[in-house]
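Lecture notes, continued. The same structure-token format from the folding unit now serves as the input rather than the output. Read the line below as a description of shape only.
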């Protein structure tokens, strides 16, 4: 990527670069997994709903996974009339459901009340239930779908109390985040096998959710065997819906140093971006990764432009202190970045570029009118 920036002469800053070559590699890897296991793959567009990314994923995969009406609308615009769109959300609105039932091919209801009320409205979609297997694998409750008092999915222990035979065609669950092994999936399947066996003749599909970084799991044998067993035992379509695994390593945030000074004995460099352009840096309180990390003797704090005291990309070591105007590039920011980015303090969003391995092409550039439109009232 550094060579790309030099050769292409990128001057915009801050800029967000989508690495199409990295996305294509992830899609090829998933295509191989699909071929080997027999699973079907959906792109979870909440990770990065940028139109070219959604269209590219739709060309190579089996559909798109969405969580809201706006996502469903955009997904349908991107993939056309015949593409598969799977929806699950705790926030389904009564007034939106008629449109959702037309946009989506599969809908997994999040609660008994949601299912009983909205499913009665009819539609051509395949109905499913999102279940909560009551198995926690995450230490941070903010990201644990199976946390105590969870809002996500029907308690698996309540399934026996629901009269869903013949009215539900699929089950959906999601239990992990950025997981790099399949042990949670295997444990989850052990627990829900009873529900599957009881309704096997009525069910047509099973969605294993997202959260697994397939490209970072070297031995995929356990997953392949699991999918083959599910398909063989229950004659189901088995879906997965990766998001971060597809785009996580495909995003770069390019910034430039605009100020430098000492603060309590440490050098602080202000860059022309902000963690508000990738809020998970602040949410997780961890340093963003540099494209070209150094292990020199010069400690430097890289800080964003906003007035937020915690607007810090992290503390790094350089061979020498970067100069004002020097470019700093952060990597692996493709997922949950632009979708969460904001204009706090009135700082513009990064200009968005695509890198196809040969050319750097500008996709989108916001300006003052975009900021003005967001906050002006009455024209």
């Amino acid at each position: 990527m550094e060579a790309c920036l030099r050769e292409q002469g990128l001057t915009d800053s801050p800029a967000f670069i989508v690495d199409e070559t990295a996305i294509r590699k992830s899609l090829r890897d998933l295509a191989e997994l699909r071929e080997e296991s027999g699973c079907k793959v959906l792109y979870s567009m909440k990770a990065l709903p940028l139109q070219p990314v959604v269209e590219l994923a739709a060309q190579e995969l089996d559909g798109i996974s969405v969580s809201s009406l706006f996502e469903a609308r955009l997904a349908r615009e991107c993939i056309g009339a015949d593409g598969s769109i799977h929806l699950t959300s705790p926030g389904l609105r009564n007034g939106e459901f008629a449109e959702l039932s037309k946009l989506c091919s599969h809908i997994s209801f999040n609660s008994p009340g949601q299912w009983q009320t909205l499913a009665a409205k009819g539609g051509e979609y395949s109905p499913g239930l999102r279940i909560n297997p009551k198995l926690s694998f995450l230490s941070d409750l903010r990201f644990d779908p199976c946390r105590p008092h969870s809002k996500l999915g029907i308690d698996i222990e309540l399934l026996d109390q629901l009269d869903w035979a013949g009215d539900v065609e699929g089950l959906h669950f999601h239990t992990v985040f950025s997981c790099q092994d399949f042990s949670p999936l295997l444990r989850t399947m052990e627990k829900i096998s009873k529900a599957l066996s009881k309704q096997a003749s009525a069910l047509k599909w099973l969605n294993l959710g997202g959260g697994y970084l397939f490209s970072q799991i070297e031995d995929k044998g356990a997953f392949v065997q699991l999918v083959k067993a599910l398909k063989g035992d229950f004659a189901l379509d088995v879906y997965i819906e990766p998001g971060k695994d597809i785009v996580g390593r495909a995003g770069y945030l390019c910034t430039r140093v605009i100020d430098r000074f000492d603060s309590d004995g440490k050098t602080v460099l202000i860059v022309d971006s902000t963690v508000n352009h990738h809020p998970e840096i602040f949410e997780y309180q961890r340093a963003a990764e540099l494209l070209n990390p150094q292990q020199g003797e010069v400690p430097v704090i890289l800080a964003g432009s906003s007035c937020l005291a915690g607007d810090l990309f992290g503390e790094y070591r350089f061979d020498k202190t970067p100069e004002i105007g020097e470019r700093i590039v952060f990597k692996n920011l493709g997922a949950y970045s632009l979708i969460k980015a904001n204009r706090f303090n009135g700082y513009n969003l990064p200009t968005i570029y695509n890198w196809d391995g040969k050319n750097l092409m500008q996709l989108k550039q916001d300006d003052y009118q975009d900021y003005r439109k967001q906050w002006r009232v009455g024209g």
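Point for the exam: The mean pLDDT is 94.
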